[in-house]
Amino acid sequence: MEDKEKYTFEEMYHFHPSNIVSMCFSAFASAAITPFLFCIIWFEKDNHNRALINLVITSFVWCAIFWNVLIQPWTIVRYIIGPVNSPLMCTVDFLLRNVLLMNANLIQSAIIIVRFICTCCVKNPTALQEEFWQLFINL
């Protein structure tokens, strides 16, 4: 009974084989996927038929790159060193995670709205000013 009362989240940070395998897989997957995501953006930028939906999807891919470059390495380091007892670091981690995830959710909603507008409402979707609308949606 006494052991259960003293239980904390420290067990999560012990180096079990499953933790080591999952951290290695996460680091490898982030390092392998990020160049492919950048290639998607590069291909879309060189494409001459840039549509608004492609630009918005490119914004979503940028969110994924930022997650792989900023958040994922910090998460791996945090699990290696253990719990951090710093309110500033916890606040920065909380804000970065939630801002990127909220931005990705808003971009997903924008993709749905843009697809509906371009399919059902606009008679000439090629006459849109894509760069302006992409900037407007991202802001």
Task: Produce a short descriptive summary.
This protein has 139 residues and is mainly α. Helices cover 78% and strands 0% of the residues. The protein has one domain (2-138).
Structure explained in plain terms:
The structure is a single chain. This protein is mostly helical. It has one domain. Helix 2 (17-46) runs antiparallel to helix 3 (52-81) and helix 3 runs antiparallel to helix 4. The model has no long low-confidence stretch (mean pLDDT 80). It has helices spanning 2-5, 17-46, 52-81, 87-121, 130-138.
Poorly predicted sequence stretches spanning 5 or more consecutive residues: none
Integer count of domains: 1
Strand content: under 5%
Sum up the overall morphology in one term.
elongated
Structural class by SSE content: mainly alpha
How many beta strands in the DSSP annotation?
Answer: 0
Q: How far is the first residue's CA from the last residue's CA?
A: 54 Å
Work out the helix count: 5
Give the integer mean of the pLDDT values: 80
Elements, N to C (H/E): HHHHH
Cα radius of gyration in angstroms: 21 Å
Characterize the main sheet.
none
